[in-house]
Amino acid sequence: MRTRSMHHAIWKAMGLMAAIVAVAAGWSGAGAATGSFAPIAADSAAADTTRVPQPPPAPAPAPAPAPADTTRPAPAPADTTQPAPPPAPADTTKMLAPPPAPAPAPAPPAAPAMTKSQRRAAERQARREAKQAKREAKRAKKPAKPAVPDDPLAQWKVGRSWVSVRGGYAKSTEKTSPDGNLGFGLGYSRFVYRHVAVGLYGHGDLLGKFGAAAEIEYPITAELTYHLQWKTALRPYIGGGGGAFLHKYFRTGADDSHWHGGWYLVGGANTPISEHSVLGLDARLEAITGDPGQHNPIFDSERRQIDHYSVKLSYSRVF
């Protein structure tokens, strides 16, 4: 009987110890899940694919804002009934002083007194300048001449004037006359019609020489020429004229000079070389009244008609 009681007490004590161990194991398992051994438990849970994953815990709610403090009074509004104070007036007692004026430039030294010769020179210069100013004013008043177009016949237009200089060969056809020599001339002509020009010319011809003795002639004539206005580089002309011929024997031992009347035929050609310049060739055949009673020891007597001719190069300036 006693033995049975002891066995019963032992089994009862063992049951109590098992219960205590079970409770202790449960507490230790909960502490291990939340303690430093949580990663190992998590790894074990991850390895166990038979379990359903649990959702993450919900975030903690934000704390509610603190209620406004209604115990303190609101600030008083600004007083808009009173006007703003006016700005302080500017202090005019402290005005800036103006900058000092610059010093005047020194006066130039007085010009020295002019002498009488200097005053006369200055007066002459002033008169020249005044005349030049008048000429310039007259030129400004005159209308500008229209530009001359590139017309090949511009120099032969009606109203054009030619001033000509000539030089070349001159000779007498008398049997006892020497070889020909030089001749020169100067003249003026003007186109009065489309093809017709009138002119006045003076020449000096050395008809020939025997040693120091010379036969000289000075024709002063008027002429009328007809110009063929071909549209080419060369424009020929023909014409005639007449006038007075001063015939002179010089250094012959019986020097004499007398006037003869005569006429001549003229022909030649001209070509323009610029807008106001013409180059030409002029040839003349002159018939002069002679004096058979005139006798010269070197050049012999004259016939009733003396024939002279000349061929000269001509340069004309056109206006």
The CATH topology of the domain at 154-318 turns out to be Porin
How many E strands?
8
Portion in strands: 35-45%
Order of helices and strands: HHHEEEEEEEE
User: What global shape is seen?
Assistant: elongated
Q: How many helical stretches?
A: 3
Q: Give the CATH level 1 class of the domain at 154-318.
A: Mainly Beta
Q: From the alpha-carbon coordinates, what is the Rg to the nearest angstrom?
A: 70 Å
Q: How are strands sequenced across the largest beta sheet?
A: 1-2-3-4-5-6-7-8
Poorly predicted tracts of residues:
29-50
Mean pLDDT: 79
How far apart are the first and last residues' alpha carbons, in Å? 183 Å
* Main sheet summary: 8 strands, antiparallel, barrel
The helicity comes to 10-25%
Give the helix/strand class.
alpha+beta
Architecture per CATH nomenclature, i.e. the level-2 architecture of the domain at 154-318: Beta Barrel
